[in-house]
Structure formats: structure tokens, C-alpha cells
Amino acid sequence: MAVIYFWRTSMLDFLFSLVSRDLGIDLGTANTLVLVKDKGIVIREPSVVARHKKTKQILAIGTEAKRMIGKTPMTIEAIRPLRQGVIADFDATEAMLTYYVKKVHESPSAFPKIPKPRVVVGIPSGVTEVERRAVQSAVLQTGARKAYLIEEPMAAAIGIGLPIEEPAGIFICDIGGGTSEIAIISLGGIVLNRSLRVAGDDMDEAIINFLRLRDSLLIGSTTAEEIKINLGSVYPQKEEKHMVVRGRDLERGLPKSIKISSTEIREALVPISSQIVLAIKDLLEEAPPELVSDIMNRGIVLSGGGSLLNGLDSAIASEIRMPVWVADDPMTAVVRGCGKVLEDESLLSKVKVTGGLR
Questions:
Q1: Potential cystine with 337: which of 159, 175, 258, 301 (Cβ 3.0-4.6 Å)?
Q2: Quick one: which of 105, 109, 125 has its CA closest to 174?
Q3: What CATH number does the domain containing 312 carry?
Q4: Could you tell me the pTM of the whole model?
């Protein structure tokens, strides 16, 4: 009977997979990316939800909600439901995921209802069992048929196309909004890893604190992110940039504008990048000698939005005396890896963190 049940379940999954739109999701602190199997990435939106404080009615999700940050009346809150890679507000996360799943999985009324999708989600490697179950539960609440979890550094390596199943060391550092995932991979598994809760959000906060202390200028997180994108660097550049920043003067309480340079912003960001470099050095010190030899030949791979910070690869390379390179399209590496394991059942069974709960 058990064999018949397993066969029926496998056949149903196979038939459903032919018509359902299975999803890969990079549930990031800063951005959420959704990939539909055989179609590619269909959603790239900020992980922000705007809702009414009293009624908890969802008013906006994604880009529209992000535009409301710092501009809402007392009755509305614009929040980021994930903090440091884990769920901080379960209801808001569930609402956000449900919105995205329905957006890509709705079928025209003239056709039969499409079966519920399988979903693969990238999560930080350092989360607890409780945090894992929170993510899995949130995904299942959206109507997913099965929910699988895969660690972000493994997903990123698969998405980049690195040979993770070979007996050779692969060193990857995925720098996101809430966490920096650092791992050494070999033979399809993670040999050593660090989940450093220092990443893009901390860079934004460092810029805010720097301008507040040095210039008595108060700015918001959205402005800080804009400064980071336009001027951010951690290594001397051939041509330094400048921009005008507007905020509130803390001494007089009036609007204030100042001109800042990339050199000044580098001063704010170097302490954050130094923590990432130190974590990389610590992991290399613990690595088996044979794997270190492989890593020296291949180099360290950077992915995630934080890897786009100007000069970060050069700063790491100068500290550890080893090649460092940034992956192509690093912001989508994790979600592309989630998509690839959807197409390969044997690979999914090797790299998933927990089974696909129904």
C-alpha cells in the first residue's frame, strides 16, 4: 500500500508540474524576486508593505509601498516585514507573498484552475529551526502545493553556474540587504559557512549616522540608499563623484542642503566592509588546506546587491591576496539558483534544507 501511495503521489506531482507554474523566490530583506519555471524572473520588487495601523488592511506592496516610507500619516505604516534575512512581521510577509504568488499564478477564467505551484525559497544559512518553519509556513499559507528551502549561498552558487558537485572548493560571499552569507562549498554541500548580519542595510545606517554626527544633517533610509548607490565605494576610485544631499538641520530644525563626495562616504562605509572582509579571512583560516588550494585557483565569488559596491572586490583581494570576482547579474543569483533546482529533482533533494511540506 505504501508503494502504491508513493507511486500515486509521484505521478500526481509529475502531472501537476506539467501545468502548474512552479516558483523560485528570493525572499530578501531589501528586495523580493520571483522566478517562474521556464519563463524566468517576472517580479523584482522591494520587500515593503504599507497597511492601515488599526484595520491592518494592506494598502500597497512593493515599489508603491516603498515610495511611502517616511511620508505616511499617523494611520498608515510602511514596513519592511523581513529583518536581517528572517521574518519580523509574519502577517505582512504572508500578505506580500500571497500577492506575488497570485500575481504570477492567476489563470484566465476561460480555463480550468491551474494546480498549486511548488515553491523553492532561498533563506540565510544561519537561521534557526523556528525561523525556517516561519518562512515555510508563510509560503504554504499562500496556497503553495509544496515549499522547499535552500540556503542562499548554495542557491547563489547554483544560479551563477559554479560546479558545486565537484570535489573542489568553491568560496562564495552573497551580500544582501540584511545578511552577508559566506560559505565554502564542495561535493554538493556546505563545508563551512558564516551568516554575518552585516550587509546593505547597515551601510545605509552608517551613512545616516555619519552625516548626522559630522554635518548635523538628518536624512532618511531612502536617501541613504540613494547615496550608497551613487557615491558608495570602499576602495580609492579613479574619478571621485559628488552629489547634493537634502535633509533637516538638527541644530536649527530647518531644511539643509550639503554637497558630499564619494571620498567622504567611503569613510562611512569602510568599517562595514571591514567586518565582511574579516569574516572572509576567518572562514579561510578554518578551511581544510586542500580546499584552500582550490579556492586560490578559482578565486572568491561575490554575489548579491552588496557586491555591486564600488571597489569591494578590490578591497577584499588586497586584504586576502587572492583573486576576487563579481558574478554576472549578482542580484539575481539566488533566485536563478532556486529556478534551476526546480528543473532538477535530484539536485533539489541534495541541497534542500527541509522537505516539501504539504
A1: 159
A2: 125
A3: 3.30.420.40
A4: 0.88
